[in-house]
């Protein structure tokens, strides 16, 4: 309570973090400062560096400047700016904007660092907005140096972001940075090694992951404060259950691979009878496993157990306490009759787990040896003197002619995607590029309307539907005008029936194929593979979706990040929806917990996209962990409502592994009813839309199902099997015990990994 009271007498701290200098942190800080000024808040600037970038200089507007203290750094002769604390205290503004959180002050200054200056101002009830690069945060400085060779001149403590009341990520694509560099807008930013495309990508991913971790912690605190379970369904927490045995380290290594590729944390647990001393062999394995866990940055714990039959209950309880999302363990080595007589840890564990996946790791050592290789495919075939066929020639020409594709993505409506799209359109227009607006949805937002500027809007086409005149993007008119760049809002929109295409993204693909570059917007909840995660977070099933391949095909994907409270404030001010809808929106989709979780989802999803692009460039420095080559994912689905979720899960696994993937369904009987056929067709459409292959097989008896699936998995050389938990998948129910279909399927698949997806999994 005393802390809360004292906080009332302190200023508010907002930190803008970006991957590199020149990412736009100062621009956004000044823009937000002008917004505050228009609201009647007293805002000044001090020690702000625009680097003479036109867009940033423009944002200075009428903001009052408190002169900084200028001095020359002896080491390199650079001109430096310190905060003039005396002048700021005498002026006593409500908010001060200042660049360079990691700045070091001149000799003899009242404080050694700008961070100390800022804390001084906060104690005097002056709020501060400031900027920092991700590689200037201790804890990330060394990692950035190892991955990119970039060395930070000055740093701030790793826990600095925890001091902030708000952290805002300013995302930037390597292409944008290179464009700014070519235009001469990044002069004076120091180390040019930072601006190499590969380095920008790595530092960008670091920034995304750093902010995502902070958002996850914020969500945990929010949910605990609301008396809700802390787990989010977004942050992966991997638990490896092992024994002091030769394969213990193998399971831990596999768990680490999964944790790193899923951007999660790693935990390891070993159950042992504490009263019995370890054998010499077990003691050796114990030391090696503990060293391994420590080396890879995981956590390991020994738990006491009286008898192995208590392990499932203890493991399920531990998983719930630690908010585990996936347990990794080895396949059972027992026969069917041993399981019937002595019981099965896996079967018992599955009955007790709630919301936790179970991955059974194949024992490949005996047959092929452990392979730990990068996920990326082998290098492209060397160029030969073979003449291209006519079809191959057309495909290559099509790729050359195709327009560039950029997507602005956000966590929710109102974050500023359309604003930034229009701003970029005007920037391109000033450079002499023919930019036109193909489709714009301003939703009556004054700030967005102002950004239209000199851009030409192509009129929409009128379509009659069910007695009403509705408007749609006029794709034919855009093709006739053939601008160099067209701006298209709301990529996930479903078109009014009557046009050439069902979805707006199909119109966009046509424009790209015609050689027209497209800049567009989308919210993270519209990605097809995240449909289940979004429903879990918000309670709303999003009907308008975009296949993930559309995002993957974009040349640039840029995140527009806004803190949830700032977004809710925009809502209250009527800047997102009409006043009549505000209270309903704040109480439903725009609830604080929803917005925090969606923000984390957007940050992690884009971090995945960035890392995939780094791997596609065959960079050895990506943050992802290694995986084996030539993975094949095999998804088993029934005809229940959970089938779509399993298909999306299979896609996300295959996408991370760069693997081919197949979906298989076994129908009991020889004929399929019309209703079931329609549902299976929708499953096939979903699979194909996500890039997989769908197959239906027939069986006269339920007992044949596992044999059919196992045989088909062998045919496609599957390395990963994905199934749902037996109690929710009707064809896996069977009889309780080792005779059930799911257990037989697992026994037949001991030479491959088997992922048993939790009933309420929404990853």
Automatic annotation (TrEMBL):
GO MF, one annotated term: kinase activity
Name listed for the protein in its UniProt record: Histidine kinase
The keyword Transferase appears for this protein: yes
Question: What InterPro entries does its record include?
Answer: Histidine_kinase_KdpD, P-loop_NTPase, Sig_transdc_His_kinase_KdpD_N
Organism whose genome encodes this protein: Paenibacillus barcinonensis
Q: Does the keyword Transferase apply?
A: yes
Alphabetized, the UniProt keywords read:
Kinase, Transferase, Two-component regulatory system
Q: Where is the Signal transduction histidine kinase osmosensitive K+ channel sensor N-terminal domain?
A: 10-215, 401-610
Q: Which domain of life is it from?
A: Bacteria
């Amino acid at each position: 309570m005393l802390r809360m009271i004292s906080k009332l007498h302190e200023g508010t701290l907002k930190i803008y973090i970006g991957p590199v200098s020149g990412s736009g942190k100062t621009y956004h800080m000044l823009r937000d400062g002008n917004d505050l000024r228009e609201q009647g808040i007293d805002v000044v600037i001090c020690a702000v560096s625009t680097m003479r970038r036109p867009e940033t200089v423009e944002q200075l507007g009428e903001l009052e400047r408190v002169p900084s203290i200028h001095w020359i750094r002896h080491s390199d002769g650079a001109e430096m700016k310190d905060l003039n604390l005396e002048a700021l205290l005498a002026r006593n503004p409500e908010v001060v904007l200042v660049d360079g959180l990691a700045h070091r002050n001149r000799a003899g200054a009242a404080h050694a660092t700008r961070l100390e200056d800022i804390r001084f101002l906060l104690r005097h009830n002056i709020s501060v907005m400031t900027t920092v690069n991700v590689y200037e945060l201790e804890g990330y400085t060394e990692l950035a140096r190892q991955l990119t060779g970039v060395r930070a001149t000055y740093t701030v403590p790793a826990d600095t972001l925890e001091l902030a009341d708000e952290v805002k990520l300013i995302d930037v694509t390597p292409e944008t940075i290179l464009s700014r560099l070519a235009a001469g807008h990044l002069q004076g930013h120091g180390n040019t090694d930072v601006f190499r495309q590969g380095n920008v990508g790595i530092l960008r991913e670091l920034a995304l992951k750093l902010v995502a971790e902070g958002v996850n912690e914020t969500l945990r605190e929010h949910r605990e404060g609301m008396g809700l379970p802390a787990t989010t369904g977004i942050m992966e927490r991997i638990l490896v259950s092992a024994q002091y045995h030769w394969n213990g380290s193998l399971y831990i290594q596999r768990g680490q691979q999964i944790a790193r590729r899923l951007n999660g944390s790693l935990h390891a647990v070993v159950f042992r009878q504490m009263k019995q001393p370890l054998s010499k062999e077990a003691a050796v394995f114990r030391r090696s496993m503990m060293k391994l866990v420590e080396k890879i940055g995981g956590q390991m714990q020994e738990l006491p157990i009286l008898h192995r039959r208590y392990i499932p209950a203890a493991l399920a309880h531990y998983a719930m306490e630690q908010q585990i999302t996936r347990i990794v363990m080895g396949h059972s080595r027992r026969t069917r009759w041993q399981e019937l007589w002595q019981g099965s840890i896996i079967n018992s564990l599955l009955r007790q787990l709630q919301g936790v996946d179970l991955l059974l790791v194949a024992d490949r050592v005996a047959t092929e040896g452990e392979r730990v290789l990068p996920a990326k495919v082998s290098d492209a075939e060397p160029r030969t003197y073979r003449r291209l066929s006519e079809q191959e020639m057309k495909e290559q020409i099509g790729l050359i002619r195709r327009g560039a594709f950029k997507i602005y993505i956000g966590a929710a409506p109102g974050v500023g995607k359309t604003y930034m799209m229009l701003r970029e359109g005007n920037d391109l227009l000033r450079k002499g590029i023919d930019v036109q607006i193909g489709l714009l949805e301003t939703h009556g937002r004054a700030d967005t309307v102002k950004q239209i500027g000199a851009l030409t809007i192509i009129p929409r086409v009128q379509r009659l539907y069910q007695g009403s005149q509705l408007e749609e993007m006029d794709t034919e008119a855009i093709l006739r005008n053939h601008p160099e760049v067209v701006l298209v809002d709301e990529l996930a929109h479903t078109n009014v029936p009557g046009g050439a295409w069902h979805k707006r993204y199909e119109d966009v693909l046509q424009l790209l194929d015609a050689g027209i570059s497209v800049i567009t917007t989308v919210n993270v909840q519209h990605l097809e593979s995240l449909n289940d995660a979004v429903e879990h977070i918000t309670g709303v099933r999003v009907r308008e979706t975009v296949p993930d391949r559309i995002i993957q095909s974009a040349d640039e994907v840029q995140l527009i990040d806004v803190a949830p409270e700032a977004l809710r404030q925009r809502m209250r001010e009527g800047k997102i929806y009409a006043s009549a809808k505000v209270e309903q929106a704040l109480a439903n989709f725009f609830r604080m917990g929803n917005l925090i979780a969606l923000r984390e989802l957007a940050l992690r999803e884009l971090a995945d996209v960035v890392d995939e692009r780094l791997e596609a460039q065959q960079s050895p420095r990506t943050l992802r962990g290694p995986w084996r080559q030539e993975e094949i994912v095999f998804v088993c689905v029934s005809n229940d409502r959970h089938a779509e979720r399993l298909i999306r899960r299979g896609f996300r696994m295959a996408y991370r592994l760069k693997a081919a993937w197949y979906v298989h369904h076994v129908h009991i009987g020889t004929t399929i009813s019309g209703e079931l056929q329609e549902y299976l067709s929708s499953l096939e459409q979903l699979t194909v839309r996500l890039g997989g292959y769908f197959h239906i097989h027939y069986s006269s008896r339920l007992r044949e199902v596992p044999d059919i699936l196992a045989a088909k998995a062998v045919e496609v050389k599957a390395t990963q099997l994905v199934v749902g938990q037996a109690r929710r998948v009707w064809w896996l129910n069977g009889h309780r015990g080792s005779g059930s279909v799911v257990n037989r399927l697992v026994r037949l698949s001991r030479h491959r990994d088997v992922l048993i997806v939790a009933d309420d999994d929404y990853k």
